[in-house]
Design a protein that fits this description.
By secondary structure, this protein is mostly helical. It is built from six helices and three strands; from the N terminus they run αβββααααα. Strands 1-2-3 form a three-stranded antiparallel β-sheet, with helices on both faces. A hairpin with a 5-residue loop joins strand 1 and strand 2.
Length: 176
């Protein structure tokens, strides 16, 4: 697909937005279940629907929830799964193990993730734990993509790579 023909999602540098009832309905439809801990819309597809939500660090039932940025678009989720199946995580992990510059940038991404989550609330059980394998492993491309979309380019180097690898999941219009 010619990427130049499809407008990309645009990152909004303003703080995450409180979800409307329409946003929450869209997220529920995308997930096929009730939402858990959604506190804000962290990123939207060009169609205007949420594709990444920001969650609270402790769910209403008391469960610690380390996944700050949750990818909700089923097309983006499927695209990440295809990359994972193709061995992209293994390749990224190998580069991470050998590249001190990449290690340092990934550590900064981990720290940014933790700082944002801590600004929402502190949870002892997950203190120092981010997601996606950061800062030493590559464990989940879905989380890395969600982080890059929510935080914007230049924050998570491996998440930014995932953004570049994916075909425009939004090109066929809204997924719900």
């Amino acid at each position: 697909m010619d990427r130049s023909l499809v407008p990309p999602p645009v990152h909004d540098d303003v703080a995450a937005r409180e979800p409307s009832e329409e946003d929450l309905d869209a997220v529920r439809a995308k997930l096929g279940r009730p939402t858990r801990g959604t506190r804000a819309i962290a990123h939207r597809c060009p169609c205007g629907r949420p594709d990444v939500v920001e969650t609270v660090p402790r769910l209403a039932d008391g469960t610690p929830f380390p996944t700050l940025y949750y990818l909700t678009c089923p097309r983006a989720v499927a695209a990440c799964s295809r990359l994972e199946s193709a061995g992209v995580m293994k390749e990224m992990a190998a580069r991470l193990a050998e590249d001190p510059g990449l290690q340092a940038a990934y550590e900064k991404a981990h720290e940014a993730y933790l700082a944002r989550r801590e600004s929402i609330g502190h949870v002892d059980e997950i203190a120092g734990i981010s997601a996606g394998g950061m800062p030493t492993r590559v464990k989940c491309l879905h989380v890395l993509l969600g982080h890059s979309l929510a935080a914007g380019p230049g924050v998570n180097p491996l998440g930014d790579e995932v953004v570049e690898m994916l075909d425009p999941w939004w090109a066929e219009g809204p997924c719900v």
